[in-house]
Amino acid sequence: MFDALRISGSGMTLHRKYLDAVSDNIANINTAAAPDQEAFKERFIVAQAVDYGSGTGGVRVAGAAFGSGEGKLVYSPDNPLADDEGYVRLPDIDLGTQMTNLLIAQRGYQANISAISRATDAYQAALSLGKNL
């Protein structure tokens, strides 16, 4: 009877972790590194479906994956991390893509909240049926 709540709860957890990853990517979009060092790598959440036949259902966070881009060299001679030629390494992260991912994660979270609300209403309606007998 409470499967809908458990499944939607797992979806909320997944989308919260997704929001965390995207927020981290946006926060570090301008994090500079020395040209000979690795730039910040974009973080992704790996989701895995949980088999409904196992009695739980829903999704779970299977882990995190990181982008493979080595970053981009940007001329910034005033940066304390710049090399002798004035270059620093910035992450190769697209802000437009991150904003899209942010909206997707937010909408997924909201959809799971709505599903929990509907399931709660249905359970309350079922309980009130017994009161009228």
What is the fold's blueprint, element by element?
Layout: H1 3-27, E1 43-49, E2 59-66, E3 72-75, E4 87-90, H2 95-131
Antiparallel strand pairs: 1-2, 3-4
Description of the molecule:
- Belongs to the flagella basal body rod proteins family.
- One of its GO terms (cellular component) is bacterial-type flagellum.
- This is Flagellar basal-body rod protein FlgC.
- It comes from Klenkia taihuensis.
- Keywords: Cell projection, Cilium, Flagellum.
- With 133 residues, the chain is an alpha+beta fold.
- It has one domain.
- Helix content is 47%, strand content 17%.
- The chain has two helices and four strands.
- Strands 1-2 form a two-stranded antiparallel ribbon. It has a two-stranded antiparallel sheet with strand order 3-4.
- Helix 1 runs antiparallel to helix 2.
- It starts with a helix and ends with a helix.
- The model has no long low-confidence stretch (mean pLDDT 92).
List keywords for this structure.
two-stranded antiparallel sheet, 4 strands, 2 helices, alpha+beta, two-stranded antiparallel ribbon, 133 residues, elongated
